[in-house]
Amino acid sequence: MILRMSSLFLRTLREDPADAEVPSHKLLVRAGYIRRTAPGVYTWLPLGLRVLRKVERIVREEMDAIGAQELVFPAILPREPYEATGRWTEYGPNLFRLKDRKGADMLLGPTHEEMFTLVVKDLYSSYKDLPLSIYQIQNKYRDEARPRAGVLRGREFVMKDSYSFDIDDAGLEASYEAHRGAYIKIFDRLGFDYVIVKAMSGAMGGSRSEEFLAIAGNGEDTFVRSAGGYAANVEAVVVPQSAPVDASAVPAAEVVDTPDTPTIDTLVDALNAKHPRTDGRDWTAADTLKNVLVMLVNPDGTREPLAIGVPGDRAIDEKRLGAQVEPAEVVAFEESDFEKNPALAKGYIGPGVLGSENASKIRYLLDPRIAEGSAWVTGADKTGFHVINLVHGRDFTADGTIQAAEVRDGDDAPDGSGPLESARGIEMGHIFQLGRKYADALDLKVLDQNGKLVTVTMGSYGVGVTRAVAAIAEGNHDEFGLVWPREIAPADVHLVATGKDPELFAKAAEIAAELESRGLTVLYDDREKVSPGVKFKDAELIGVPTIAVVGKGLAEGTIEVKDRRSNTRTDIPVADVVDHLVTTVRN
Ligand code: ATP
Ligand code: MG
């Protein structure tokens, strides 16, 4: 195939688009791959679509290779199935909702667990039909709060989503492993530097869930890993419950006067000045129990306060907290919320009033580091006062624990495999053992070997296809433009003809035709009256990894071949150039 620049539907831009912050977004727009249609909604232009299709092809080949079968659902869906699973409400403002002319509620699919479950229920009825894996590569719609970085986080995006259906847990495990293997192949072929991390399994708990994160400094996800092989999205780190400690020697709790100590730092200073410890060491922030109030807003709009107790030297990590309380959203506990609850002495709040059994009635959850028997300094629920030697289990209790405190570099990995180190990444894929949640909600049962109806167990597996294009661009560019990995570049060779002599163009056209006949896709810059400088700039911007220039060298019988990745140039004799290019591309 030959794409002629003289007629290709393409305009490259010299300036970065005003709304673009990350390199992939700037370059994909400038090089004429995508065009913004609305915030988070993009048009794919011919060059972009070629890259997108190549990514899709890789994904499709690897899904087919594990025996998954492709189908495609509509994007516009009825409300009822999503109502049945609770997601019509849970999705909250992220769901694009619409009404048809008769007033029926519909939605644009954000993900399709419901539809897949129902189609299997519709067509299958026996264990003999299973296992089954089916998938689609299709547009998804999410009214993201913060669409970002072009197609990296869009409101319309292409996802490959697959779902496995098994009769039992062992079957689900096997389907999950097959998908995991396919994903490794996909992300290897896409050329990502990636990690597989433990992910949140959401409301279901317990089941296996992993994410594939492309390592990228400006990624939105933070993950931690240890030298011993632990790797988890920071949201999914489960800090073990600290073992109980002996409190028999801890003196009785005592309320102490600590005026003007609304912060941990001021409290620690005041304690050391006025109430020094008896064991010779100083008080530190780690001796204090900090109680943080937040407000949870449920998808139906109802509000519910939550108090979280953490050691005073640790902050609450908003993302970890957010992942724990999903689908509720976390907002600030406002002054007016304090006013409504007179039991709360702002700056001096303690376990004395927190908890569903106590005066404030506010649900109170503790960081798992707060061991049974451990003693703390914390608020005495009276402005200007704290209480020391308050022992967990002896003097106070809570409603449970929560994984919301920050995870810090150097913390021990939960599995004891060494200290944790953090880095950032972009979530490219997610594999997840759903279990029976959707099958239960939508009543997907089949007959087992004994003729008994059993609920099917499911897995759900997603790859962000449009996001992959952006993430690959993010990891494959230089100061001049994009530099695509060969397998997904929009063309195999970018052939540039420069000069005025018609013979040059005739020779270039001949080479293009020969390359085409050898099965290569050629992006051929056949534009007359466009300066060599402009053509070279465009070639660098567009990012086909191999550029061949039919120009000045032709008089000496050579054609210059540039490798964008290694930045090397070689003069190749005209007679050898087609073979040379074919070999280069095929290697
Ligand atoms: P994120 O945490 O980034 O919002 P998610 O966990 O909501 O993603 P999933 O529901 O697991 O996403 O979707 C599967 C895959 O779809 C993700 O791993 C990601 O690659 C891709 N994806 C999700 N949301 C978007 C989006 N808004 N734009 C582009 N790709 C997306
Ligand atoms: Mg995910």
Account of the protein in words:
By secondary structure, the chain is α+β, with helices and mostly antiparallel strands. It has three domains: 49-237 and 421-474, BirA Bifunctional Protein, domain 2 (2-Layer Sandwich), CATH 3.30.930; 254-401, YbaK protein (Alpha-Beta Complex), CATH 3.90.960.10; 491-586, Rossmann fold, CATH 3.40.50. Helices cover 25% and strands 28% of the residues. It is built from 14 helices and 30 strands. The strands form seven sheets. Strands 4, 8, 9, 10, 11, 12, 13, 22 and 25 form a nine-stranded mixed beta sheet that branches. Helix 1 crosses helix 11 (465-475) and helix 2 packs antiparallel against helix 6. It is globular and about 95 Å long. The model has no long low-confidence stretch (mean pLDDT 94). The protein binds adenosine-5'-triphosphate and magnesium ion. Residues 427, 430 line the site of magnesium ion (MG). Keywords: Aminoacyl-tRNA synthetase, ATP-binding, Cytoplasm, Ligase, Nucleotide-binding, Protein biosynthesis. Homodimer. Belongs to the class-II aminoacyl-tRNA synthetase family. ProS type 1 subfamily. It is found in: Cytoplasm. It catalyses: tRNA(Pro) + L-proline + ATP = L-prolyl-tRNA(Pro) + AMP + diphosphate.
